[in-house]
Amino acid sequence: MITIKNFFSKLNNWAERFADKMSDWFGHPLFLLGNMLAWGIWIVAGAEQFPYGGLTLLVSLEAIFMSILILNTSTRKGHADTRLMIKDLEISEDIQDDIDNIHDHIAELKEMLEDEER
């Protein structure tokens, strides 16, 4: 049985994968080339007269959706990076504590050896 929570969780996972794939595609040179070709055909074919209100609307909508998808992807990746940095910091602090303990033990051993020599 699908619960509402499971439904929205699956929907969210799908949306995240979609945003990632689209963000990757937006960065591909073929995407730029395709857009330039489509805009050129629009203008040369005379789909509308200057000042190209329809083309302006389409390009603006494309930019809005692209920015939303790219921001979504970068925000999630930023949160993931932050979690990794926090984990790295915790590990580094634990290692530093271990190193400090080793230095303390070495100092104690050094004192014990100096006391035995006297």
Main features:
118 residues, mainly alpha, 3 helices
What does this molecule look like?
The termini are far apart. The protein has 3 helices and no strands. It has one domain (14-117). Helix 1 packs across helix 3. With 118 residues, it is an all-alpha fold.
What's the number of extended β-strand segments?
0
What sequence of helices (H) and strands (E) makes up the elements? HHH
The radius of gyration over CA amounts to: 29 Å
Q: How would a textbook summarize the main sheet?
A: none
Topology record:
Blueprint: H1 4-26, H2 29-44, H3 53-117
Summarize the structure.
By secondary structure, the protein is mainly α. The chain has helices at residues 4-26, 29-44, 53-117. It has one domain (14-117).
